[in-house]
Amino acid sequence: MKDRTRVVHPAPVEVPADNRPLIAPIYQSVKFSLDDTVQTEQMLRGQRAGFFYSRQSNPTLRQLEQLLAQLQGQEDCILTASGAGAVAVALTALCKAGDHILAFIESYGPTRHMIQKILGRYGVRHTLLPIEDRAGIERVLAETPTRLVMFESPTNPVTKIADIEYLVGQAHAHGALAVMDNTFAGFHNHGQFGIDVHIHSLTKYASGHGDVMGGAILGSRALLKSLRPDIGTLGPTLDPHAAFLLQRGMRTYFLRYDYQCASALRVAQFLSAHPKVRRVFHPGLASHPQHALAARQMKDFGTVVTFDLDGGLDYGRRFADALEFFSISASLGSAESLVMPPSLLGGGEFTDEQRRHTAIGPGTVRLSIGIEDVDDLIVDLDQALKVAFN
Questions:
Q1: Whole-number Å distance between alpha carbons of 276 and 265
Q2: What is the pTM of this model?
């Protein structure tokens, strides 16, 4: 073998079967090979295990897919390169021209854009309702054949709680799929409700460190098998190194989530007692309109605290600017605490009536609680409120 060939075909290193790595390696390879054509053909027909091309499947991705499916109580998982990508390819693969989607005003902005603007171009119709509008939900499903009901809980940013059993029951009673963005609640909540498709942004709690993006689509093995050809062709593939980092982040998932939830409740209690705070949106507070529903549905109450500040937009800006331990940034679920002041919460496309249903006002501020010492966070919030109103 000449050197020009040797550098392309180095001698393999075989790891003995009883000499396993403690941490699974990164399979940073696009292509996989078997010894002969017959074995390769059998693998592609699903008659034997194996991998062929990483846009379709990869061992590093597969390990993470299996873990997330087990945590969510689902049979299978497909990974994507971002949470928005998971929403986009799931809805694209599930819908065709002429289908109807029932969705909700309180949904994540990119989800609304996907349903209203992108799918709308290709003949997919939709109805957008407030998530508490039971009469509207029942009317729409009774009058309009519906392909899927798309919702999330808790909602962004004011943590409304969807009645999941009701929504899933209504969807299934009318022949529709129930599709849920489960990002805010994490992978250990809501697996018991018969939801057909769970969607997550792995950028949040799976990563936990704000340094890698990813998305996940979870459901039954049969349903996801029917979606894989379309999703594989659309090509939203997660890179193996990103999958490795997400798998690493999941090792501390419960440590982070439990602590962040406990800290978020402490922060919510502090804010609810502050004279310059009008109201606090956090499902763990007894004052939350759906506290009892959240307690029935969830194992915990999440890490997001949203509140309405006296004084409106300018005071919200001054408050955010005065914070020391909260960075002004989007997203949630990572180690650092974040703040979104009123001017950055979006929703400019809403009508006045729709905005009323979102409960987002001129002084609404969203906090994502990180893993800092909660006493430090409360001191910081207190001093920032003093600065804002001096």
A1: 18
A2: 0.95
- pLDDT tens, 323-339? 999 999 999 999 999 99
Question: What three-state secondary structure class fits 366?
Answer: strand
State how far the Cα of 194 lies from the Cα of 12, in Å rounded to an integer.
46
Architecture of domain 56-250 in this structure: 3-Layer(aba) Sandwich (3.40)
Where do the H-state alpha helices sit in 235-331? 240-250, 253-272, 291-297, 313-322
Distance separating alpha carbons of residues 305 and 268, to the nearest angstrom: 6
| Pairwise CA distance, residues 36 & 44, whole Å | 13
CATH number of 253-389: 3.90.1150.10
| CATH 3.90.1150.10 boundaries in the chain | 253-389
Determine whether 16 is exposed, middle or buried from the number of CB atoms within 10 Å of its CB (0-12, 13-18, 19+). Answer: exposed
Torsion 320-326-328-334 (CA) sign: negative
Encode pLDDT of 291-313 as tens digits: 999 999 999 999 999 999 998 89
